[in-house]
Fold this sequence. Notes:
By secondary structure, this protein is mainly alpha-helical. Helices cover 64% and strands 0% of the residues.
Amino acid sequence: xxxxxxxxxxxxxxxxxxxxxxxxxxxxxxxxxxxxxxxxxxxxxxxxxxxxxxxxxxxxxxxxxxxxxxxxxxxxxxxxxxxxxxxxxxxxxxxxxxxxxxxxxxxxxxxxxxxxxxxxxxxxxxxxxxxxxxxxxxxxxxxxxxxxxxxxxxxxxx
Length: 158
Ligand SMILES: [Zn+2]
């Protein structure tokens, strides 16, 4: 999926999460968007890869694309780090929700993700979209609708 789709995925996921928790929605949303871009640090041409080129090269060299940073193991490691070093819980929650949304979206592509890294299986949904193709636009449109729906609900629950 492209960065744009991941961002809207992070928006939808963090707004949905804001409805079922008491975290500050604005913090969840901001952290969710950043979190939705983190897993593609393994990809030099991604938004975050271009922002942090050295770290990106290092991770790509060590693990390749869509492996470690798209796995449950990575989520758990980040969760433990955040738990110990991040004083604002809403930031941690948002980052993790955003990252999880990224991995789920990449599971909807043909290539799938190495969800159980270091195991080598590619995990993907039975129905997949082609990155940049019409099916991705459909995913983008649906996520936009979800975002409006959850954002609207949030506005009126304040
Ligand atoms: Zn990815």
